[in-house]
Amino acid sequence: MKPVHIRDYDLLVIGECFIELRAENDVNRNSSYEKDIGGADVTVAATAARLGSGVSMVSSVARDPFHSMIRERLQGQGINIDHVVTNTGYNGIYFTCSKFPDQREYLVHHPGSASEFIVPSMIYDDLIENCKIVYASSELQSVSRAARHTVFKAFHFAHSNDIMVAYDPNLRLQRWTLDDAKESLWSVLPLLDVIFPSSPDESKALFGYERPLDVIGFLWDRGVSIVAVKNGPNGCVIGYDGKVEEFPQENVSEPIKDVTLIGSSFAGGFLHCIARGFDPFTAARFANSVALFKALKGGGINSLPTHEDLNE
User: Fold this and answer.
1) In terms of C-beta density within 10 A (0-12 exposed, 13-18 middle, 19 or more buried), how is residue 281 classed?
2) H-helix or E-strand containing 166?
3) What is the tens place of the pLDDT at every residue in 60-71?
4) How far is CA 54 from CA 13, 77, 204, 268, in A?
5) Which helix (H) or strand (E) holds 136?
6) With 0-12 CB in 10 A as exposed, 13-18 as middle and 19+ as buried, what is 310?
7) Is residue 167 helix, strand or coil?
């Protein structure tokens, strides 16, 4: 296995690509939409890449009218797409609206069928060994049993070889049942080094706890070493190495434009820092600033910050 300092990629993201159609008015009343790529996994990958991390992605893109756009946009963010395969079917689409800044995704995802071609055979030893962190979320697990097996295979190999494994529960009950979400989470929980649960609703549904401190204790007891509880506008609470620290979000005078997918931008910023060798508490401060930048700017992946944006 390659030593950590000569691996080609800081982050390997295994996930689903969506087309995002963004409206400023109600989705059902709007006459035009801004088109881009999106989704939780794409946002994590794009955030880390724009900040300067080496990022590779494992995914599947359908050969529909959006095929070339998805590939070009991924590459434009600096994401390696050597392991993004092309298949038949349709790419997933979702609609989002910035009319109500305090609400997240406005219309549920339409899964499409391209992601059904993400299968365990896409995961092999050299792919995992060439990165510092392997990341996936339940958004991909919800697609199919094959996708769940793909995530498990990648996580199991990484865990067995002391490669960091990061996971976002990203509960989407419009896509599958709570029982299925719990089953998929518990199947990978023993393999995780980093987890990004949201409080209070998601953590209550998945773990039975609302308070970040209780969530951290629960997950520590199950062997997860870094617990980053996303706490909405209140920032985050980090548990690591027996210590718990809260990081409130900065108060700003500018209005928040859109909070869609800022949790995924937080995760991307956090993992970028961890790959650079920073401790989780330093990573949390940085990730808060990444999420705030996107919320203030609004829009899709072009609203994600670069390293220069955060050091002006």
Assistant:
1) middle
2) strand 164-168
3) 999 999 999 999
4) 11, 11, 34, 12
5) strand 131-137
6) middle
7) strand
One-letter amino acid of 305: P
For 235, left (φ over 0), alpha (ψ -120 to 50), or beta?
left
Q: Write the DSSP string, 83-107.
A: EEEEESS--EEEEEE-SSTT---SS
As given in the structure block, the two tokens for residue 293 are 């930048």
Annotation: CATH topology of 8-311: UDP-N-acetylmuramoyl-L-alanine:D-glutamate ligase (3.40.1190)
Torsion angle defined by CA atoms of residues 24, 61, 9 and 275, in that order, rounded to the nearest 10 degrees? 40
Domain locations along the chain: 8-311
Asked whether the whole model's pTM tops 0.70, one would answer yes
Half-sphere exposure of 256 (CA within 13 A, CB side): 17
* pLDDT tens string 27-86: 777 777 889 999 999 999 999 999 999 999 999 999 999 999 999 999 999 999 999 999
CB-based contact 36:294 (threshold 8 Å): no
